[in-house]
Each structure stands twice: as C-alpha cells, then as structure tokens.
C-alpha cells in the first residue's frame, strides 16, 4: 500500500464535480445532498459550496458544524472527508470561489439575496483507490 499525499488526492479529485455533503439534522438523523465544488481543483483540505441562507443544510450546520463529504471518481476512486463547516456571508469570499456556472442557480451572482457559502475544513480524509487505501489527517 502506498500512502498518498494531499497533493496526490487533489490531482485525482481534479475531475470530480459533485460531492455528497452530509449534516446532522434535527432528531439525530443524517441528511445528505449533492453539492457542486465548481471544479475547484487545487484541493488543500478545504471545500466551498454555495446555497441559500434559508436551507435546511444551513440550519443543520448552525446547530452542529461537523459534516462529511463523499466524492466518487473513476475506477473505484473514492474519498470520504470528515470536517467542520463554517457559514460565510462575505461577498469578497464569494468572489474568490465564484464561477459563471453558478449564475444558473443564483441570478444576481455574488449579490444574490440570501446567498451563503459553506466552507468545509477537513480534519480527516480517507481514500480508496482500487485496492489501495489510506488516511490523511489535515
């Protein structure tokens, strides 16, 4: 088994656009939903996603910021991330992560009323690459 580095994972994650973001919901349930990472390919253990302020996901994160992300790539490449989510409401931070594809969902761009960015900072990353697997602590 070869231990991969965070840079190795970032390279393999380059073409994965969708992650499943899971939160702790009310009543002890776990809620998951697909989120686009907007092809931010220089993965350093931090991921950013845009959503609506009034979403259940935002309420879940306000109550319990511990989240997980799941990525699936080609040829049995999978990544599971455990981390903490932070809700960002700063337009300058939005601009750093904005891509034109987001205009489809948020018509006024970074000025869309009720827009919030979720920043997930990984604490542990587990990966599987075929029969190879390992952990990275961030």
List key phrases describing it.
138 residues, alpha+beta, Pnp Oxidase, Chain A, 3 helices, 7 strands, 44% strand, globular
Give an overview of the whole structure.
This protein is an alpha+beta fold and 138 residues long. The protein has one domain (6-137): Electron Transport, Fmn-binding Protein, Chain A (Pnp Oxidase, Chain A). Helix content is 17%, strand content 44%. It has 3 helices and 7 strands, in the order αβββαββαββ. Strands 1, 2, 3, 4, 5, 6 and 7 form a 7-stranded antiparallel sheet that branches. It is globular, with a radius of gyration of 15 Å. The chain starts with 5 loop residues before the first helix and ends with a strand. The model has no long low-confidence stretch (mean pLDDT 91).
Q: Could you outline the blueprint of secondary structure elements for this entry?
A:
Blueprint: H1 6-13, E1 18-24, E2 30-36, E3 46-52, H2 56-63, E4 66-72, E5 77-88, H3 91-97, E6 115-129, E7 132-137
Antiparallel strand pairs: 1-2, 1-4, 3-6, 4-5, 5-6, 6-7
């Amino acid at each position: 088994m070869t231990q991969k580095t965070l840079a190795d994972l970032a390279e393999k994650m380059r073409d994965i656009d969708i992650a499943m973001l899971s939160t702790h919901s009310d009543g002890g349930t776990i809620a998951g939903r697909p989120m686009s990472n907007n092809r931010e390919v220089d993965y350093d253990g931090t991921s950013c996603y845009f959503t609506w302020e009034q979403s259940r996901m935002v309420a879940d994160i306000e109550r319990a910021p511990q989240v997980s992300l799941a990525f699936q790539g080609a040829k049995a490449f999978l990544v599971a991330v455990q981390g903490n989510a932070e809700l960002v409401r700063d337009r300058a931070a939005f601009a750093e992560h904005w891509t034109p594809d987001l205009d489809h969902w948020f018509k006024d761009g970074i000025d869309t009323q009720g827009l919030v960015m979720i920043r997930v900072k990984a604490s542990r990353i587990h990966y599987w690459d075929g029969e190879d697997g390992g952990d990275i602590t961030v």
